[in-house]
């Protein structure tokens, strides 16, 4: 299991499952879009810390602030989460560590640039 040290305390990172991804999205953390430019990176980090530590967002912010004031780095947290993502069974597919094509296809559907499959040929 992966772990991360935040403000001198070591936390085990929970398994990243579909349910965990949904729970994180409800907190403003979008793991499936982490590779895209995210204007709310601080909110995402706070949500990750709250999820990992099981603290409410206000207390998670305090832990992050103390982590930085005590010489810690935000990248420490992101590195731990990235490691957990890379070892997650949810994201492993044919030996690869990421979901390919999903964000682009999702974006196309969101803007109506998709084609419906109207050719229903029978074999």
Structure report:
With 123 residues, the chain is mainly alpha-helical. The protein has one domain (3-110). It contains five helices and two strands, in the order ββααααα. A two-stranded antiparallel sheet has the order 1-2. The longest helix has 14 residues, at 74-87. The chain is globular and about 35 Å long. The termini are far apart. Mean pLDDT is 75; it is low at 94-123.
Strand order of the largest sheet: 1-2
Task: Provide a count of the helices.
Answer: 5
Mean pLDDT over all positions: 75
Q: How would you classify the helix and strand content by structural class?
A: mainly alpha
Distance between the termini: 46 Å
Query: In total, how many domains does the architecture comprise?
Result: 1
* Unreliable spans: 94-123
| Sheet of most strands | 2 strands, antiparallel
Query: Which shape, going by the Cα principal axes?
Result: globular
Estimated helix fraction: 40-55%
Which sequence of SSEs, written as H and E, runs from N to C? Answer: EEHHHHH
Strand segment count: 2
Oligomer: single chain
What features would you highlight for this structure?
mainly alpha; disordered C terminus; globular; two-stranded antiparallel sheet; 123 residues
Show the helix and strand layout.
Blueprint lengths: L2 E4 L2 E4 L5 H9 L14 H13 L3 H13 L4 H14 L14 H9 L13
Antiparallel strand pairs: 1-2
What's this model, at a glance?
The chain has 123 residues and is mainly alpha-helical.
